[in-house]
Amino acid sequence: MSKAATFERGIHPEYHKELAAGQSIVQAKLPQRVVIPVSQHIGAPATPSVNIGDEVKKGQVIGSTTAFVSSPVHSSISGKVIAIADFPSATGRMVQSIVIESDGKDEAVPFKEHPDYLNLPPEEIKAIIKDAGIVGMGGAAFPTSVKLSPPKEKPIDTVIINGAECEPYLTADHRLMVERPKEVVEGLKIIMKSLGVRQGYIGIEENKPDAIEAMRSAASGESNIEVRPLEIKYPQGAEKMLIKAINGREVPSKGLPMDVGVVVQNVGTALAVYEAVRYGKPLIERVVTVTGRGIRKPANMMVRIGTLMSEVVEQCGGLVEDAVKVIAGGPMMGFAQWTLDVPVVKGTSGILVLTKDEYVSSDEYSACIRCGSCIDVCPMGLNPSMLSILSEKGFFEETKEYNIFDCFECGSCAYVCPAKRPMVQLMRLAKSQIKP
Amino acid sequence: MATEAKAHELIVSVSPHVRGKETVGRIMWTVNLSLLPAFIAAVYYFGPRAAYVTGLCILTAVLSEHIYQVSLKKKTTIGDGSAFLTGLLLGLNLPASVPFYIPIIGAVIAIVITKLLFGGLGYNIFNPALIGRAFLLISFPKLMTIWTEPTARFVALDAKTTATPLGILKEGGLSQLMQVFGDKTELYMSLLTGNRAGSLGETSVIALLIGAAILLYRGYITWHIPVSFLATVGVLAWVFGGQSGFFTGDPVIHLISGGLILGAFFMATDYVTCPTIRKGQVIFGIGCGIITMLIRLKGGFPEGVMFAILLMNCFAPLIDRGVKSKLFGAVKEQKK
User: Fold this and answer.
1) Residue B145 burial by CB count (10 A; 0-12/13-18/19+): exposed, middle or buried?
2) CB within 8 Å: B8 and A323
3) Could you give the ipTM of this predicted complex?
4) What is the CATH number of the domain that holds A133?
């Protein structure tokens, strides 16, 4: 179709980006209270470092950690700790959370600024990023400092900023690139500096021409940063697919991007890195796309971490009459919610509300008719048809032979399946029953 | 806050939360529709009897599936169009002259024995319509090989019987085929339009290709099986099909006669009974081509497409085990 870079296979779902793509980022109202889970990331949970009754300020550490693969959490408002208990989280699990009631003052702890941020030694940059509680903001929420500390035998030569935003509906990264391109580029430069890398890329799907243009002009002075338009295709934003598209390297099966010398960071993460290193601001807020036909006024909102979804939804005009499904994240990989009383966390890229007519029931499905559609779209080159049958019949051990652990649950197979089989669920079932 | 969520009775289900528009029913009914040109051609050349025979097949197929499922207290699946398709394909694979009980027996064998007893759509090993036809051919060899001459009119009551082009080729060679049809151009024209003896739906190559184009355009079938199947038949016919030594055969006659076009585009491509990996489908197609030509040139039957597909159906699961799609990141891993 075009010379835009891409990977093999994948799908073309309806994108519906128009609902929120034109909405400038607005500041959400200061929440009256926040619920901050001590585990919003992959890795060890943080330990609460405050007690019930304590007064806390915005940016103050309230959950600390000493583990390598972990991240501290900070208070996103000023106020008083009123509870430390298990609360429902967006992934459906109960997670220990610190509840803070706002005093309405929004007073912050002093942030340590670094005007000469590009001259900081790499180790100090990494320490700032870790202390700021920065994790991957594309959804997976892997601690950023860990990604920036690869073992010595894995030299990194490329950093890619992921601006693909291939999940339908979501526009948070799109808006950031349009509105704050300079800061994203500065974030990328800091990340490159911390890794000692010369080559940086920013990959953006072609359906965001304004973002491509904004990023190009922001990076125009940087000879070693290139903006790469990407074909509009899901899951273009998956790390392995993105790397393949950008520089043709194929992350080995069961491997990580660092195995091919690449570190990928999301647009939002790059901004958070810049704000943390330049201004000393920890990760206490993020852009959330509130969208879908089920929401009255779609918006892109800068939301304090820990704000309940119900409050965010209310500020967007509330749910329409026939709203049936609320999803944290995008429609392909997001989590359906049973209550709106769950907090926005570091990895919450969107709140998507689907209406009755958009909802496809997965209650009824039929046997695999072996049409092969799933094989034609699987970005990992797996045989989802066979995997789903093996899992369905309980042959879990056998799924290893078909590389079940290379599946990252993008849902492309389920999307195209004419028999409407619960492909992703069957993959998860098999994975949960065996060890890699 | 909580009342808002309650008022909305939120549905929780696993990702992805959006699905594509394809359904089994949509695919099956499209395939049925793509066979409409062939059905019209069948009625045009063989008269109302073509509609009668095909209709009886469809009716029996759909009814037997419904009765079987209802009597076992299962959900009836006749709405997905696959029983209809099996009936339609069986009908198009029968001669016009068969008595009424032939379509009925064939359709019951196809649906109940070949499909439902194996677990229903998705679980059957063999192409149901072809097992139905194979059963009929072996059980009623006489009735299944009475070929009426196409009348190209809507009366076929006193139709004369004749042999199929492949039958003539087998018995009397190319010279006799020329005698019957005149010259080569006329032979090709008759084969392309369908003005020749044969099973109801197999004769009109043009009508079949219109349907095949629809399926290819919609992406319901891919080129892999038909092209590898046809290419193999063409090459083998050219190399071994001649009477004056190697490389003297006429591949065109073999390609556009018999049930090859119907088989290659509509029956060998049956999802359930062919391999799922595209590379494996090419192997499957080549296998179908080899067996077809083996039977046509050396076997006892003039036509071998049906048995070729059925035999290759047995190999489909094996091919799927042996041929795997290329795993992302697999090459690099081996190099390490």
Assistant:
1) middle
2) yes
3) 0.90
4) 3.40.50.11540
